């Protein structure tokens, strides 16, 4: 599938996922998979991205169990996926874990995603994964870190040419929720900075309505109405509510339904219509009080407490204040602050661990072919000998490789070695381990007696000889010589390698090549 066509369809899929249009999304994802299979199979990165998009749509519909199961279906492909795809997987898994009420796992998955993203170049996928991490951090009330991460997502979106409206709307959510939490604790000065950020992000989000899915446009106006109502500005609040109701956000997500009710109650209260406000907010509270919905629902009992307090219903107001501070008081705030500090440290530690593993892998990998190198192979062979079962070692090198470099140039020589490495992977399924040992020399270890191993190596040699090398360079022909030896009870890695190398040297001295022997003849 052409890359521009794929990018276009993925952009549409992201919009459909944001709008929770599951039927249309499923149709599009099915088409994308069918095209990828036609082109030779679904790459791991694409498979994970498609699973993440569908899981996000399910999470927007608050169908967490289905989202989790869908993600688990592609978890087996994580090892073969690029780091950015792994980050996407972990970021969405973090959100799913939150919806199960498992905040520890939500933070763990988010930490893994952020650590993976820390050293990656900017990309649309990195921006989306970072934004998802920011939202999950806000859900788990790690607000300062959430705001910082959403700021990183915005920067990535700008760097990669993604429309930024959706990222501003998500940042608006974080700032509004953070501001409410500060307001509940009476931290007015800190709260004021959040309210200003809400207004700024809202204006930037709605400045590009075409870049904002309908449901997110409606949520943005509803959140701005909620803020206006809480600040005692019913005119502005009612104006934004009308715009939110008029948005073509169908089907309406549970989040949008909640924020519309929340905003309606706040605006009605600001308008002095206290009985209507109380009815709307009480219905909302009854629908969410026993559910693991995202943070800020504790604002509903605060508004109900203020309504009762204004009407002189002191006992009822005290009851609502108890509900509020039982859910979000200073003790909880201190606990969440400690968890945020720990999360920051864990992101740094995990990023360092990843870099350490990558450096270790680099020291054991041949940069040209991607195969294990001599150091890795020597460590492996030394660890398995003496072995309980048969172990056979084959040493291969390219015939007259210097002539390839001299006659066709070193770039062609490098491509020959890369191709041989690929052919080893493709045609040596029976090998325990293979490596580029150095220069034009390769080694194979097989868990088989000599005759069986010889047939397997012969298949590799035949694949190299039969490769269309002339397509790489006119007149190019590549063959490999080889020697082979089976480990005896007293053999060490050194003695086994020496035995295989002697057979290879004997073949060279005799100016002959061990031609591939068909498996039937070997037997």
UniProtKB/TrEMBL annotation:
<dbReference type="Pfam" id="PF00990">
    <property type="entry name" value="GGDEF"/>
</dbReference>
<feature type="domain" description="GGDEF">
    <location>
        <begin position="389"/>
        <end position="519"/>
    </location>
</feature>
<dbReference type="GO" id="GO:0043709">
    <property type="term" value="P:cell adhesion involved in single-species biofilm formation"/>
</dbReference>
<dbReference type="InterPro" id="IPR000160">
    <property type="entry name" value="GGDEF_dom"/>
</dbReference>
<dbReference type="InterPro" id="IPR011990">
    <property type="entry name" value="TPR-like_helical_dom_sf"/>
</dbReference>
<dbReference type="InterPro" id="IPR050469">
    <property type="entry name" value="Diguanylate_Cyclase"/>
</dbReference>
<dbReference type="GO" id="GO:1902201">
    <property type="term" value="P:negative regulation of bacterial-type flagellum-dependent cell motility"/>
</dbReference>
<dbReference type="InterPro" id="IPR043128">
    <property type="entry name" value="Rev_trsase/Diguanyl_cyclase"/>
</dbReference>
<dbReference type="InterPro" id="IPR029787">
    <property type="entry name" value="Nucleotide_cyclase"/>
</dbReference>
<protein>
    <recommendedName>
        <fullName>GGDEF domain-containing protein</fullName>
    </recommendedName>
</protein>
<dbReference type="GO" id="GO:0052621">
    <property type="term" value="F:diguanylate cyclase activity"/>
</dbReference>
<dbReference type="GO" id="GO:0005886">
    <property type="term" value="C:plasma membrane"/>
</dbReference>
